[in-house]
């Protein structure tokens, strides 16, 4: 008579841990994979924002170079306002020969971007501000296109992406098998092919997913906003010795111009000597040029008697990031801040964000992240195909609960720690636990085979 021996206690414990991790890897994938695909598509495109806009909006952004001499910024401003009446709020000089100047004008219809030839003042075209193709892609990527509350999904997706990678690494870890670790077995008709493709691609992309998730957190609705406000606790978020003791307004830098993430809440100084004669835009641009702002900088114009001229530039080279505020009456700098003035935390955050955008290391940065985006999409498609082939007919196919529920509770305790750090992730964890309870209670513990 043959008797079946029961698995040893260590074997049962290992099996329970595997089931618990597998179950939550499944839930993380269910929640995150749609976001990963959409973020990879939009993010991969946004990596080439300059190239996209240079091609798609070439009629607006480029013009034939007529000479080495350009007309004055004030003449360009006048040409733009003649076509689009309103209050000029920003002026962007040509970054290089053959580029147009851009004037942003506040009108009753909203802000309009006017593109003007710097050689003869001819207006090349007009469009609503921040509606270029690259800006639309950026709004889609950050989910701002769908309203302010959609940004909260960024934090949830980023937090669960980290969980997805951690649990995926545990499931991938070799346990005596030779195939499916660094190679793909079978053919597309077989489930094992999609399992191996998912695992191997995930192994390659996993570290990058964590990096992109962490560096994408600054744009999240709760964590990012709170950390940003904390980082700007000392007005500009850099050592107090760098600042000049000048009156500060309640306006923030992000209210007047696009800025780096760490400076969104930076307060703007006020111009003294209200009532004196203001300097011209040409004089302000000349001052910024003398101070050595990198090409491509934008000038925000004063719109109130105590307003300032603000020159700001955020090039790919982080060391050349700079924000300068000029007194609109004397033309003297009230505040001059560069990347070197940020604290260690601010510099680390800006480096992460800049690299996330594919800017820090030039074309190599773009190509590597594009390959990562493609790998993430391939990994996600493989996961969907694997699930489809293995799911029981008519059921979701949630992996079975571990026999020892204490293993499951221990895993939840570790997940809860991440929920404390990222509040929205913690809230979504509670929702997922509630759904899991419903699946277990009313759907039974009928999972799918572990092989």
Automatic annotation (TrEMBL):
InterPro entries: PepSY-ass_TM. It comes from the Bacteria. The keyword Ligase does not apply. The chain crosses the membrane at residues 26-48, 152-173, 193-214, 367-388, 408-433. Keywords: Membrane, Transmembrane, Transmembrane helix. The keyword Membrane applies. This is Uncharacterized iron-regulated membrane protein. The lineage of its organism: Bacteria, Pseudomonadati, Pseudomonadota, Alphaproteobacteria, Rhodobacterales.
